[in-house]
User: Which sequence fits this backbone?
């Protein structure tokens, strides 16, 4: 099975993370973290900065590695390096995605994540308090 190496940005702001809805391909309409393929000669961090600039017209600072997700889709094996990121410039313009949302901890299950991203959500839950420096803020209606 072919292995595809990609990167994903978990962009954080205050007590929220940024999620995007895929706008093309076999997994159209599924929710994911923005990113893309690592090109030959690039580090994961370089690929992530490039992909976010291309997809969202936004500049990010790549921070800590959350986890490398290994997932077998029917057509390929995905190896996805996932990093915490912060916005340093730009306006989050959706060039390839059909929608986006800022999600709080309580809202993490409010979208239909793609399978590999579901695994990442569990790692995000574990690291949430350490990364945001506060207790989880649950949604109160």
Assistant:
């Amino acid at each position: 099975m072919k292995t595809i190496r990609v990167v994903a940005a978990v962009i954080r702001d205050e007590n929220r993370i940024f999620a995007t809805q895929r706008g093309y391909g076999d997994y159209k309409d599924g929710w994911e973290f923005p990113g893309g393929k690592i090109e030959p000669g690039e580090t994961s961090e370089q690929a992530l900065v490039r992909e976010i600039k291309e997809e969202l017209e936004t500049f990010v600072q790549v921070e800590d590695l959350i986890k490398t997700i290994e997932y077998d889709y029917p057509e390929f094996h995905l190896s996805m390096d996932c990093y915490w990121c912060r916005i340093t410039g730009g306006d989050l313009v959706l060039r390839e995605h059909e929608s986006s949302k800022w999600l709080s901890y309580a809202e993490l299950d409010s979208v239909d994540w793609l399978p590999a991203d579901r695994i990442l959500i569990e790692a995000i839950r574990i690291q949430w308090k350490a990364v945001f420096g506060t207790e989880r803020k649950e949604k109160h209606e």
